[in-house]
Sequence to fold (133 residues):
Amino acid sequence: MGDRTMKKATTWRLFLLIAGVLLGLVAGLGGAAPASAGATVFAPAQQLTLAVSSSGAYTIDGREYRGETVDVWVVQVSNRDRVVDSEKVRPGGDNAFRIRGWGLDCGQTYQAVSYSSVDGWDKSARKRVSCGG
Fold:
């Protein structure tokens, strides 16, 4: 009797293993999208750039924003993330804005981050303030 139970348990385990593998393959095939489709569908329309100078001055340019107002933050990303400046802007008729500021610390790395209810979140590339002339 014990031998028969052992065969049933092994058969069920094998059946569950094969069923799991087949379900995984079917789910994987159904959920996968071509790489080219993902890049075009989810790419943000807006573009945010940050430029810094060795004196600690910075310029943030935003293009292709459709929202009426955009919240923009300058974040120090060296060591620990910390907001060092923030501003609420209204893009002009060309859907663009420019923010200028100063006071960034030498040797630190910064990033601009934006949010609007229409455009969602965006961030610039990280920029390091070089020390010296």
